[in-house]
Amino acid sequence: MPESDENARGPALPVVATVPCADPLGDPFLRARFALPAKPTTFLRRQRLVDHLDQALGTRLTLLNGSAGAGKTLLAADWAAGLRSPVAWLTVEKGDCRPGVFWAYVLETLKACGAPVSDAVGAPADASGVDRRLLAALAAELNDRDRPVVLVLDEFERATAPEISEQLAFVLHHAGRGLRLVLVTRTEPMLPLHRYRAAGDLTEIRAAELAFTPEEAVALLQLHGLRLPVHAVRVLVDRTRGWAAGLRLSALAARESATPELYLKEFEADHSTVADYLLAEVLKVQTPETQDLLLRVSVLERFCPDLADALTLRADAEAILTGLHHENAFVEPLGHSWYQLHPLFGEILRAHLRVRLPGVEPELHRRAARWLRRSGFLPETLAHSATVGDWDFAAGSLIDDLAIGQLFTGLRSDDLDRLFSRMGSEPQSPATDLVRAAHDLSRYDLDRGQAHLHHAEERLADDAPGLAAAQLSCALLEALAARLTGCPPRVEKAAEAAGELRQEVPAHLLDKHPELTALLLTHLGSARLWAGHFEDARAVLTTVAGTPPGAATLLPREESMGHLALLDYLNGWLGRAERKALAAVSEAERGGQDQQPGSGIGRLVLAAVAVDRHELGRARALLDETAQLPAGTRDPVLAAGRALTTAHLLLAKGKPGAAVEAADPAVSTAVASPWATSRELLVASAAHLAEGRPDEAVEVLQGVAVDQPMCAVEAAAIQLAAGHREAAVDLLDSIRTEGRTGPGPGVTVRATLVRAQGAERAGDTATARKLVAQALLDARRERLRRPFLDAGALIRPLLATAPLHELAAGWLTPGSPRDDTSRPESSPPPLVAAELSGREQDVLERLARMMSTEEIAADLYVSVNTVKTHLKSVYRKLAVNRRSEAVRRAREVRLL
After folding, report:
1. Quick one: average pLDDT of 7-24?
2. Is 90 helix (H, G, I), strand (E, B) or coil?
3. Distance CA 456, CA 461 (A)
4. Residue 632 has what pLDDT?
5. For residue 590, what pLDDT is reported?
6. 785/606 Cα distance (integer angstroms)
7. Are 158 and 37 in contact (CB under 8 A)?
8. What is 667-822's CATH number?
9. What is the mean pLDDT of the chain?
10. N or C end of the chain: which has fewer CB within 10 A?
């Protein structure tokens, strides 16, 4: 044949193997690899996954990707068994990493499923490679098929040769709709998944979807003969993360236990068949370096490559962790190069660590703590330090980070309290003393707290460098201790020292811990309120209340709102006080801190307002709520306020003796409070008057600080009742009304009524009527009833006259003062205990427009059930049971 003719026909075709049923090595095909795996009798068909896999019939590529034992293979086999299309199943083995062997098996499995290719395709002639023309011919024949072939490659992670993935991608691309490829694998295949994903030609089922739900786990355990409640199974699902093999192995072991439910709750992972499985399938298949890394990071809740390197003292963690994640080897990514171990795997590795590397665990915790401290991860630093009892390092880290305030407020306060409760008395350093002081003061153990604080102050007395954070923490605790002992000058001194120390502390730490400044200002504001410096107190408390909402500043914000409410009440502004108190209570409830001492201030003010409105049942209920605060609470403002409000309630109920006894707050303070002392004396004076001892009542008034408007007007009322009209008028004339916050209706209404009574006694009935009318107008806006009931018989005839009766109708009358105080009260509906959320307000407004539940749901684009949930919450907060009552009550409290 001429050379030109030979070249025209192209190169000669390769010689192909002609031995039937043999791979290129001449070995017989292992036909078990073509069979669908048998399903065990305890197999649970999960229809949600089967339905998802049905999408594979409409996409070229399907990926089932998950860890060992995730249930991938049985899921694929169960699904494939129900298909009408030909299913070619191949279980890949390690020898298939050679392209020739791999493709020989692919061709044979196509033949085994009844979709053989023609002789024109041929067969690989070399185990180590495959001719491109064979792949092209295979793709062409598949593309010509009327019905697609479903090719399932199980355990595809064993086909590690990159060229296999490249060849498979070529065939899949050119086979068109004649091939549906399903890869069941532990690792990410080296195919261009992004292209198929972008084209909508990829079906994916990954680890999260493969995990069993609690309901599925219940059904699985039932197949194993175990009938357990959902809550018990949920614990097992949480522990295994829904891992199929873990659930099955645990179920098999639980069947042998006398108490299966208890076993599944408390089984020791490291002494179970689960441990055998994970150690054999995951740990022991790794390189020695990888095994060492896994054992060492098992002491961590989460880790990144740099932290892992700090524990291994090597520099290969990044590549190892990337590989483990790629292999689905129970190393779960958290994002930003951080990982965590599967919980069960972590338990087993920690137990294995103690066997393989005894005595190393404490040192690993110390290394982790120091790396985490340098990197700014304080919570984990404290946890690892506490684990090995390194309390000096733990306390020092907390103080150096300026995080001492987190023991009092924020989401971590309970965790820190439990952590440092384990610290014994042995560690002795300024930091440990400060933490002990904070721990004791947070529990209102003033004696122990101040003793530890004194020790810390002695050790911090020198001016050694680097102590600013500790000294600032010391100033905060000093302010708290001084506030709780009722010593405002000491609080002022601590606040002044803190102001100077702030200049020496890095600004980023102050920005990181806003709770420290907020707590300090709250202590200062409370102390100033105790001292009677109302305007100065208002200034600092307003600053705290205006800080951006956040968990870190929740308690100081709520306390400041409560103190501001108390200031308004003491100045006679009932409406303002109520709104701020409601905001304080709502702030506490949103943060789940309704039993913290700060929330007592808000409820206390609401109770005091309720007494003034003669809502005595409501007042009693609110006072009972404040009584549920921790028994050790010794805040003098709260204690005095509660005692005085209780006393006023008892006076309103006609129990003067009990009122005098209740007015003693039973709190020893370093400095007496002018307003608390004065109001206590006023209770005693009112009791003397009620029991017919006017001279004793007037004598007690000598100690009252009449420069405070509320105290002056109450003293004037007693003087008038005792027959000293001129003294009463002089007291009223002495009340100052200038300043940013002059006296409100709580003061002015009482003052007006005292003047009216004086005018009536002087025979000037016309003036008395005018004054009572003015008092009624001012009181009606605040629903202020108590001053009229206290005014006595002098104004009762005036209220019966036509013009005044009309002003009092509906909110004060009918009923004479005597009748109102003696008969069971008919109180208005309870106050709103918490603010409505934005969505609840939306629902309430539509309720007022007479819209049905269905109409509200449609208008707000939410479900009917969601509307019903919001309605229940609105009813609860408004203390009503019906729609009409909710609308009426909302209008009363100005929510509509």
Report:
1. 41
2. strand
3. 9
4. 47
5. 64
6. 15
7. no
8. 1.25.40
9. 86
10. N
User: Which CATH number applies to 838-892?
Assistant: 1.10.10.10
pLDDT(8) > 80: no
From the number of C-beta atoms within 10 Å of its C-beta (0-12, 13-18, 19+), residue 894 rates as: exposed
Cα gap 543→541, rounded to integer Å: 5
Is-contact 279 307, C-beta < 8 A? Answer: no
Q: Are 114 and 147 in contact (CB under 8 A)?
A: no
CA–CA gap between residue 623 and residue 634 (Å, rounded): 16
H or E segment and range at residue 733: helix 725-733
Q: For the chain, what are the domain ranges?
A: 31-210, 214-267, 276-389, 390-508, 667-822, 838-892
Rounded CA gap, 415 and 420, in Å?
9
Please tell me the predicted confidence (pLDDT) of residue 829: 40
CATH topology match: 31-210 vs 667-822: no
Using DSSP's 3-state secondary structure scheme, residue 749 falls into: helix
Structure tokens belonging to residue 810: 């509906």
Site of tokens 């049923």: 21
**Which stretches within 82-124 are classed as H helix?**
99-112
CB 67 within 8 A of CB 210: no
pLDDT-based confidence at residue 270 (cuts at 50, 70, 90) = low
CATH class of 31-210: alpha beta
Q: What is the pLDDT of residue 823?
A: 38
Strands 179-185 and 149-154: parallel
Which residues, at least 6 apart from 539, have a Cβ–Cβ distance to it below 8 Å?
none
Q: Which of the four pLDDT bands, split at 50, 70 and 90, describes residue 422?
A: very high
CA atoms of 177 and 198, how far apart (whole Å) = 17
- Give every CB contact of residue 578 below 8 A, 6+ residues apart in sequence: 565, 605, 606, 609, 831
User: pLDDT tier at 398 (50, 70, 90 boundaries)?
Assistant: very high
Has residue 128 got a pLDDT over 90? no
Q: Is 362 exposed, middle or buried (0-12, 13-18, 19+ CB in 10 A)?
A: middle
Ramachandran angles phi, psi of 830, nearest 5°: -60, 160
Does position 502 have pLDDT exceeding 50, yes or no? yes
State how far Cα 273 lies from the chain centre.
36
**Residue scoring higher pLDDT (837 or 48):** 48
Taking the alpha carbons at both ends of the chain, their separation in whole angstroms is 104
Find the range with the poorest average confidence among 36-45, 450-459, 780-789, 811-820: 811-820
- pLDDT above 70 coverage of the chain, percent: 90
Question: What pLDDT, on the 0 to 100 scale, is given for residue 10?
Answer: 38
Q: 825 pLDDT exceeds 70?
A: no
Q: If you ran DSSP here, which 8-state letter would residue 113 be given?
A: T
β-bridge pairing 331-335 and 87-91: unpaired
Q: What angle do CA 497, 501, 506 make, to 5 degrees?
A: 160
Q: 835 or 175: which carries more pLDDT confidence?
A: 175
Would residue 376 be called left, alpha or beta, if left means φ above 0 and alpha means ψ between -120 and 50 degrees? left
* Side chain identity at residue 857, one-letter code: A
Mean pLDDT for the stretch of residues 427-444: 91
Q: What is the pLDDT of residue 633?
A: 60
Of the CATH numbers 1.20.1070, 2.40.50, 2.30.30, 1.10.10, which one belongs to the domain with range 276-389?
1.10.10
What number of CA atoms fall less than 13 Å from residue 494's CA on the CB side? 29
The average pLDDT across 643-658 equals: 92
pLDDT value of residue 740: 52
Classify strands 338-341 and 331-335 as parallel, antiparallel or unpaired: antiparallel
**For residue 814, cis peptide bond before it (omega within 30 degrees of 0):** yes
Residues in the chain: 896
Between CA 35 and CA 138 the distance in angstroms is: 22
- The phi, psi pair for 338, rounded to 5°, reads -105, 145
Report in angstroms the alpha-carbon separations of 571 from 41, 424, 527, 707, 756.
Answer: 78, 48, 17, 12, 21
